[in-house]
Amino acid sequence: MRPAIQILVTILLVLSVSHARCDVYSWIDENGIRHFSNVNLPYGKKATQISEAVSAAIDQSNFKVTKVFDGDTVQVQGQDLDFRIRMVAIDAPETGGSKKKGQPYSQKAKKVLRQLIQGKKVRLKQYGTGGYNRILAEIFSQGRNINLTMISQGLAEVYRGRLPKNLDPAPYTKAQADARRRRAGMWSQGKAYKSPKTWRKENPR
């Protein structure tokens, strides 16, 4: 049995214990390899949509970071799986996309995150799914919590919305308090600082 099939079977077996839902798509490429993905499909591909739980099987695999979108969103691949990750518990300055100027330190956050994990093997600790059908996860590289590192460097704040019940926010709030005290990264703006949450409200898509 191929590794991707084994992982999917594991996902199906743990439905009773995992409540995080994610739209998973399955398709076969021109080489006869079956893929599973929770992101947009390749152009022109026909796929079967499988609405299933995202299980702890993800936590048992190594993934390679293939793209860094901004300071808190990346894409990973591994085991014939292709996932978009929203880094849980943190909120990095908004880049603004192609039509709007982003927040101060947004490009710095993206650059640093890219330096930390782009092209590297990482492990994930997932906490279900969030907006835009992205998996919420802590990312670990060489035993280092990358989510926490972004907070410590003043390139992200603790997420101001609801956090997963099984996530301990204490290390994050402590790291943020220390970063603010040191005026690290975006905290150097002082009173001019604007949270990503506030910026999004003022700059709707």
Automatic annotation (TrEMBL):
InterPro entries named among the record's database cross-references: DUF4124, SNase_OB-fold_sf, Staphylococal_nuclease_OB-fold, Thermonucl_AS
Record keywords, A-Z: Endonuclease, Hydrolase, Nuclease
Pfam families named in the record: DUF4124, SNase
Keyword Hydrolase: yes
Chain positions covered by the region annotation Disordered: 170-205
Entry-linked SUPFAM superfamilies: Staphylococcal nuclease (SSF50199)
Domain TNase-like: 59-189
GO molecular function: endonuclease activity; hydrolase activity; nucleic acid binding
Name of the protein described by the UniProt record: DUF4124 domain-containing protein
Species assigned in the record: Desulfobacter hydrogenophilus
